[in-house]
Design a protein that fits this description.
- By secondary structure, this protein is an alpha+beta fold.
- It folds into two domains: 87 residues, Orthogonal Bundle (Arc Repressor Mutant, subunit A); 154 residues, Endonuclease Chain A (Endonuclease, Chain A), CATH 3.30.870.
- Helix content is 53%, strand content 18%.
- The chain has ten helices and ten strands.
- The strands form two sheets. Strands 4-10-9-8-5-6-7 form a seven-stranded mixed sheet, sandwiched between helices.
- Strand 5, helix 7 and strand 6 form a beta-alpha-beta unit.
- Helix 3 packs across helix 4.
- The protein is elongated, with a radius of gyration of 37 Å.
- The N and C termini lie far apart (104 Å).
- 21% of the residues are buried.
């Protein structure tokens, strides 16, 4: 009998009724109605532990669902519908809702399938090219590319620097764990802090060379992805557009160009001796 249900059993039944579509308040009120042949709203609220201001709405919902009936009188009383009948009604509503969802699903599939199939046939011939202008977006994308390196990174580095070598902590982690080669301009020796930052990269494992001037900023990753900057000839003022291209053939060509510039450059010690030591001696 319901009156002999333990607290744990009562809570379990409330949860099960919830899975059949009743709210927590409706479930508790329905279980409370089982305790007597009929009960007033106030009695149901007390037994179920529900707010008095909500009980009439809750009982009205049970009556509408066919889980209870109201007995008119000086004081309206409510009676529970027998569980085998009440719960079958709940299950039937679930079946009807499931059938409606299945019909809606079939309709949506029918409508979307032609669009999906048409979309598979439409490809952007330049989808392997990204164009970046915002500095934050450029830094974010470069960070993503660094994190995806498998074997090798080649870099032409020249000012203005998005992140100077002395501040590029992520870059140090990359050169410690991957093959890294870089070409810098001689101007890297104009700033002692920047020079020291480059020295730390070399100590971490970077193979570096130095040349008077580089044509552009360039990154080649794993002979597959290239990232390069192009100065804006109209806007001027050092503004540039960064292009990312995932194209092995282009990466291969640019690696050949990198190798040629790299081989013609000075090592750190050679460049330091020529550009810093001699400069100090002649000053």
């Amino acid at each position: 009998m319901v009156s002999s249900l333990t607290l744990v059993e009562g809570d379990a039944i409330v949860r099960q009724l919830g899975r059949l579509g009743l709210t927590s308040y409706e479930s508790k009120a329905y279980v409370a109605l089982m305790r007597r042949d009929s009960s007033t709203a106030a009695e149901v609220a007390r037994v179920a532990g529900l707010p008095r201001q909500r009980i009439y709405d809750v009982l009205g919902s049970l009556v509408e669902r066919g889980l209870a009936s109201a007995r008119p009188g000086k004081v309206v009383k409510y009676s529970a519908t027998a569980p085998e009948l009440a719960l079958e009604r709940l299950v039937q509503r679930q079946r009807e809702e499931l059938a409606r969802l299945e019909r809606d699903t079939a309709d949506v599939i029918e409508r979307l399938t032609p669009q999906f199939e048409a979309g598979r046939e439409h490809t952007d011939p330049l989808e392997y090219i990204e164009v970046l202008r915002d500095r934050e977006a450029i830094n974010t994308r470069f960070g993503e590319l660094q994190s995806e390196i498998k074997k090798e990174i080649l870099v032409f580095t020249k000012p203005p620097y998005a992140t100077p070598p002395q501040e590029n902590v992520e870059g140090l982690d990359v050169v410690r764990s991957h093959r890294a080669r870089a070409v810098y301009e001689y101007s890297a020796f104009d700033d002692p802090a920047l020079t020291e930052g480059v020295r730390r990269f070399i100590e971490a494992g970077e193979d570096a060379r130095f040349v008077p001037e580089l044509p552009l900023k360039l990154v080649v990753i794993d002979e597959t992805i290239v990232m390069f900057g192009m100065d804006d000839p109209v806007a001027g003022g050092g503004r540039s557009t960064i292009v990312v291209v995932e194209h092995p053939q282009l990466a291969g060509v640019l690696k050949i160009a990198f190798e040629a510039v790299f081989e013609g450059g000075l090592t750190f010690d050679e460049a330091y001796q020529q550009l810093v030591v001699k400069r100090v001696k002649t000053a």
